[in-house]
TrEMBL record:
Transcription regulation recorded as keyword: no
UniProt GO cellular component terms: cytosol
InterPro entries, alphabetized: Aminotransferase_I/II_large (IPR004839), Asp_trans (IPR000796), NHTrfase_class1_PyrdxlP-BS (IPR004838), PyrdxlP-dep_Trfase (IPR015424), PyrdxlP-dep_Trfase_major (IPR015421), PyrdxlP-dep_Trfase_small (IPR015422)
Keywords: Aminotransferase, Pyridoxal phosphate, Transferase
Annotated protein name in UniProt: Aminotransferase
Organism name: Colwellia psychrerythraea
Keyword Transferase set for record: yes
Molecular function GO terms recorded: identical protein binding; L-aspartate:2-oxoglutarate aminotransferase activity; L-tyrosine-2-oxoglutarate transaminase activity; pyridoxal phosphate binding
Subunit structure: Homodimer.
């Protein structure tokens, strides 16, 4: 049976990491996968996570199954993080949330849920979007289409193009929006633009799906949720996929959440029964360890405060690195304007290099970027930024 298979190419993001590991050049720099690194190039376990794990080790009573929805405490704490404690959807009891295996698990569950709502559903994703969005939704059987988003020439947002396209989507379609820290462009909507998108969503009637993979990595936990909370205030139905990989540094623990908002408490209970069924037939129930860590942190004043600090440190380093590379490129004689990097948000920006130049950076300088020239901003430090800027200058 396997004879009929043809080998697939390596994943455009994860495949880079394999090449990087094999590279023996001591100067090599990994700007590929979106994993936070500190000044020393490590991805440490957060202190608050270590303490929560310690606590868990001594207090955990059982490894028995939980349920397809995961831990109720994690779910309710996540709902407060996503919406803020006083949001109207919580007061009106119109949100249901389940724990999922990472943000990707949430997206896949959302995709299958959408398919259950409408067997020929279309989901619109930004052009460009995270390389795995297309695959996840196509695998769930959805039609995937794109709306304009990033203006490569002007290194800015094509907001008019985006808004005009959203006005034309079908009322039963789903539109995926990156809640903050757009992956791969780093180009986010401002508050006024979110308001316009919310108006269009209400007028057209499409269902927004908010991908919230980086809450706290942009300007802060509250500001990063601005557009999401506004949309949740404006529309009747919405889907949210969250990840705890980046903001809690729990990448390999695979913990995220899928939230649905319905028009009423009764309507969302019915929808939730379908969501739980979807989870049950894919993976039965989510892993528990990551959820236990997050709920322990979020329910302890001490650990929560420590987490805020550690999250701020990560965010500040990324924002500092944005300015650093812009300054270093100028210092090393690059005349092309890269100031867009310091205006963007989150883990990524496009350098705006051609695929050949990206390849040259890899072949000649052991600098690893995704082919689109997406750069993971946390991947360099004060120690190697000069080498990075010089190498970019050379390929330019
Ligand atoms: C990325 O975009 O690099 C991250 O979200 C990691 C991944 O799974 O692709």
């Amino acid at each position: 049976m396997f004879d009929s298979l043809k080998a697939l190419p390596a994943d455009p993001i994860l495949g880079l990491g394999i090449k990087y590991k094999k590279d023996t050049n001591p100067k090599k720099i990994d700007l590929g996968v979106g994993v936070y690194k500190d000044e020393a190039g490590n991805t440490p376990v957060l202190n608050c996570v270590k303490k929560a794990e310690q606590h868990r080790l001594t207090t955990e009573q059982s490894k028995a199954y939980i349920s397809p929805g995961g831990s109720p405490l994690f779910n309710s704490e996540m709902a407060k993080l996503i919406f803020g404690a006083d949001h109207k959807v919580l007061a009106e009891d119109r949100a249901r949330i389940i724990s999922t295996p990472g943000g990707t698990g949430a997206l896949r569950v959302a995709g299958e849920f959408i398919k259950s709502c409408k067997s020929d559903a279309t989901i619109w994703v930004s052009n460009p979007t995270w390389a795995n969005h297309n695959g996840v939704f196509a695998a769930a059987g959805l039609n995937v289409k794109t709306y304009p988003y990033y203006d490569y020439e002007n290194k800015s947002l094509d907001f008019d193009g985006m808004l005009n396209a959203l006005k034309e989507v079908g009322k039963d379609d789903v539109v995926l929006l990156h809640a903050c820290c757009h992956n791969p462009s780093g180009m986010d909507l401002n508050k006024e633009q979110w308001q316009q998108v919310a108006e269009v969503a209400k007028t057209v009637g499409f269902t927004p799906l908010l991908d919230m993979a980086y809450q706290g990595f942009g300007t802060g936990l509250e500001d990063d949720a601005y557009g999401l909370r506004l949309l949740a205030d404006t529309v009747e139905e919405m889907i949210i996929c969250s990840s705890c990989s980046k903001n809690f540094g729990l990448y390999r623990e695979r913990i995220g959440a899928c939230t649905i908002i319905g028009s009423s408490s009764i309507a969302v209970d019915i929808a939730n029964s379908v969501l739980l069924y979807v989870a049950r037939v894919i993976y039965s129930m989510p892993p528990a360890h990551g959820a236990a860590i997050v709920e322990t942190i979020l329910t302890s004043d001490e650990l929560r405060t420590e987490w805020y600090g550690e999250l701020k440190d990560m965010r500040d380093r990324i924002n500092g690195n944005r300015k650093l590379i812009v300054d270093k490129l100028i210092e090393h004689g690059v005349t092309q304007d890269f100031s867009h990097i310091s205006r963007q948000m989150g883990m990524f920006s496009f350098l705006g290099l051609s695929p050949e130049q990206v390849q040259q950076l890899q072949d000649d300088y052991s600098i690893y970027l995704v082919g689109s020239s997406r750069m993971s901003i946390a991947g360099y430090s004060n120690d190697n930024v000069d080498y990075l800027a010089q190498s970019i200058a050379k390929v330019l």
